[in-house]
Backbone:
């Protein structure tokens, strides 16, 4: 079950990174309105929108993550907001593909929209609920990764767990080995695919935290695979 | 420099030869033996990682005089009232019980590099195949005219954890209303570059509550200091008018103290003060000098393995080492310890050795929920540990981010102390 879920996740991630450029183009708001029904169980938009299980999505573009007044967010999403995560076409796109790409501990329990066109359509629909849609660029050429850096073959790299164990010692200066969170998130008991996902999101600076961007930024694809292989071996 | 007894390991070729050398079997006894001197961020981490990762194949002895080790990092937060001193104390029980480290509470007083033994104040002699020295800092004699360690009860340095921090805090609490707290800041290089300025912030925080008309005077031999823009912005915002800093342009490098009279003389002009925190120039912990592995004030090391450049059987970690770009910090020592632990295991048990990676982050607290950080990653080059990439908090950050940064520092404290002591 988990294996099936994570395999499709990895496939989706690869798809996302391969198609990142097309997702930056604005989609069809009419189609997006229909697709938004999937989101509407938890999120409302429009003049009467209020917070349900999820916050309302009016004026989402340019908004700091976890910043809707009176909505109780997960600690993880609050951290991401404080670290500087801003909702833009570039960050919403991976988030609605798989929320955990950007925020490991988010409460948003959403299977994700795997088709980049679907995502573009939903984002185009949300864009109509912004105060000034014209100010939101149809594409953000400077913000979009110009190069595809994560290919399926990178995800298929078999990690060297012994090397991963050495590399993990660097994580354990801050992240406790027993999984306790005293102010820095736990990284134990983490499915390896999520681990790879998160590290590449930091490496590509989609996730905002500066320490993690620095740590992940100098890890090669092999090293990320090695760490994932090691983390798979520990409880 | 004493180079006569062992060949000087100064080139990358020699360093590589050490790494690729066949397994060194300890002659005449069973398991290879590692002695670690100093149970702080470098030594405790190294002892734990060697014991843990060698699964009992290496005999590890840790020599540390204190039964309860008070971390120097976070001691400023204790002075500011954000941490209890007891919470900064750690013991070595888990290293002994769970990892099989032989913990000896004694002072190391000599190293015989030919016989490969460490002698202890209590009279014991410990043989080693590899020696790890992680003694932290000592103070340079006569660095601040008028001050020596005999004056530390009157004018505390509070730059080693525990009792000195408690003394300084008690003195601040006993200051007369509107009194003056002075700090004589150290010249580079020294332990914890933002440390003196975080301390100023914490002293100001404490005084704002108990003695709001008090003054703080920093006498500083340096032109600038770590995270200066962040600290100065914070001091202006939280403690406007309380803190004055006298840099070298105004005589900050020409300072003398008189502990008996509680006076500080700055470029000949004498000030009466109520508390005087003297942080003198620093050098490697004395055992490095005794071992004859220092060059000037510090012990130079080969970056890839943290081996002394004077003796391949000795590794030097943390503040005492002269390694290049890394700041002298607990985080750095912990990072270096893992590289050294891997190199030691590789040499003694033939375990795999990977390329060294180093990193550091220093968090500082400026006021309640106002935390900042600076950090960098490093790699080993032939010449030095060289900075690869880094970041620093920005001025003008919003309150939520500063609070998150402070909370992250609490997480780091919990993480690193569990990484050191198990």
Residues:
């Amino acid at each position: 079950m988990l294996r099936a879920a994570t395999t499709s996740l990895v496939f989706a991630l690869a798809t996302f990174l391969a198609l990142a450029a097309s997702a930056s183009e604005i989609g069809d708001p009419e189609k997006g309105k229909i697709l938004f029904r999937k989101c509407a169980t938890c999120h409302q938009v429009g003049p009467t929108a209020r917070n349900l299980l999820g916050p309302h999505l009016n004026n989402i573009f340019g908004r700091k993550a976890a910043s809707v007044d009176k909505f109780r967010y997960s600690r993880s999403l609050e951290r991401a907001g404080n670290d500087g995560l801003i909702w833009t076409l570039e960050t919403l796109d991976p988030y609605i593909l798989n929320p955990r790409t950007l925020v490991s501990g988010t409460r948003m329990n959403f299977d994700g929209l795997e088709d980049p066109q679907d995502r573009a359509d939903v984002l185009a629909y949300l864009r109509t609920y912004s105060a000034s849609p014209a100010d939101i660029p149809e594409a953000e050429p400077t913000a979009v990764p110009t190069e595809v850096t994560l290919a399926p073959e990178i995800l298929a790299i078999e990690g060297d767990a012994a090397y991963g164990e050495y590399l993990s010692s660097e994580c354990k200066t801050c992240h406790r080995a027993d999984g306790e969170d005293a102010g820095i998130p736990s990284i134990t008991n983490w499915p390896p695919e999520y681990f790879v996902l998160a590290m590449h999101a930091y490496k590509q600076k989609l996730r905002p935290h500066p320490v993690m961007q620095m740590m992940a930024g100098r890890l090669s694809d092999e090293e990320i695979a090695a760490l994932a292989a090691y983390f798979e071996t520990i409880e | 420099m004493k180079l006569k007894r062992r060949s000087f390991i100064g080139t990358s070729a020699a360093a590589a030869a050490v790494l690729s050398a066949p397994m060194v079997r300890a002659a005449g006894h069973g398991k290879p033996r590692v002695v670690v001197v100093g149970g702080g961020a470098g030594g405790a981490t190294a002892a734990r990682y060697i014991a843990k990762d060698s699964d009992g194949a290496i005999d590890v002895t840790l020599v540390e005089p204190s039964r309860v080790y008070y971390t120097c990092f976070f001691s400023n937060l204790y002075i500011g009232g954000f941490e209890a001193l007891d919470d900064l104390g750690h013991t070595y029980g888990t290293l002994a019980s769970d990892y099989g480290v032989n913990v000896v509470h004694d002072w190391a007083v000599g190293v015989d590099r030919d016989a490969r033994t460490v002698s202890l104040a209590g009279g014991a002699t410990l043989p080693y195949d590899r020696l790890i020295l992680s003694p932290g800092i000592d103070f340079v004699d006569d660095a601040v005219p008028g001050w020596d360690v005999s004056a530390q009860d009157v004018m505390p340095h509070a730059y080693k954890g525990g009792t000195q921090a408690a003394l300084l805090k008690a003195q601040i609490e006993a200051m007369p209303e509107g009194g003056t707290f002075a700090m004589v800041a150290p010249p580079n290089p020294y332990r914890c570059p933002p440390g003196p300025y975080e301390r100023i912030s914490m002293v100001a925080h404490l005084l704002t509550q108990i003695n709001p008309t008090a003054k703080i005077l920093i006498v500083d031999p340096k032109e600038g200091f770590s995270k200066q823009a962040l600290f100065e912005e914070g001091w202006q915002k939280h403690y406007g008018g309380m803190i004055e800093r006298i840099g070298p342009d105004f005589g900050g490098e020409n300072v003398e103290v008189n502990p008996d009279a509680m006076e500080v003389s700055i470029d000949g002009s004498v000030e009466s003060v109520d508390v005087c925190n003297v942080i003198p120039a620093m050098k490697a912990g004395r055992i490095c000098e005794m071992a004859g592995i220092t060059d000037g004030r510090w012990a130079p090391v080969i970056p890839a393995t943290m081996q002394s450049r004077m003796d391949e059987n000795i590794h030097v970690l943390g503040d005492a080492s002269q390694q290049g770009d890394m700041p002298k910090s607990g985080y750095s020592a912990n990072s270096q310890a893992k590289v050294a632990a891997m190199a030691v295991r590789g040499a003694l048990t033939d375990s795999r050795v990977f390329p060294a990676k180093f990193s550091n982050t220093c968090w500082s607290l400026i006021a309640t929920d106002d935390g900042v950080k600076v950090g960098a990653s490093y790699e080993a080059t032939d010449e030095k540990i060289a900075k690869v990439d880094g970041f620093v908090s920005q001025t003008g950050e919003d309150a939520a981010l500063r609070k998150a940064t402070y909370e992250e520092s609490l997480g780091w404290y919990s993480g690193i102390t569990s990484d050191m002591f198990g």
Remarks:
- Chain B touches chain A through 36 residues (CB under 8 Å).
- Chain B has two domains: 12-138+282-356, 141-278.
- Residues 141-278 of chain B form a domain with the FAD/NAD(P)-binding domain fold (CATH 3.50.50.60).
- The two ends of chain B are 37 Å apart (CA to CA).
